[in-house]
Protein: DUF4360 domain-containing protein
Organism: Actinomadura syzygii
Amino acid sequence: MKHSTALTVALGAALVLPALTATTAAAASAPDGLSFEVATVNGSGCPAGTVSVALSNDDDGDDFLLTVRTSAMRAEGTGGSPQTAFRKNCQISLKTHVPEEKTFAVRQVDYYGAAQLEPGASGTLKETRYFQGMATAPAETKTFSGPYSGAWAHSSQRFSDLLFRPCGEDRNFNIIQEVQAERGTSDPSKAISTGIEGTGRTVYHLDLKNCFWR
């Protein structure tokens, strides 16, 4: 168990981000006109009022960071819990506003959460995202195996084939997340959990570029 905790601390230190400069709320905006607003949420992991967004800059001040928090996104249970307790999902649709001469894509995503997994148990995070009316980005899946106790962090990057929002078009940015705790061969009398609720969050690194009109 001590080994798992040490690994968690190392991961968290490697992926630590600058402090947010925007107030977390149902909407977030930046001085240059870029903004995001929670349009709709749906799913067992995000009851009304549990999803918020914030915008900040990275260390260099060149890129924007979109932070999404889901305060109820936690799957947990024991041997007597219903199967629905071990799986939580959330579909988030964000209304986006981008200046006409700009567009953006997601080039990196950092996930922060916590898990309590007994030996033989596992926890899984899944995510897909897409702009309204467009193809989805490749699905992201990360699995943690027990024994594990404490915070976890995971980062995913794309260096090519970025999916940019079409220039001059109003399209929502849609996110579908799922967390699942699997009992496996673990002791059914002991609780297991995983999630990105509480202090957990998902941070999207936005790659902005200019639109060139013909």
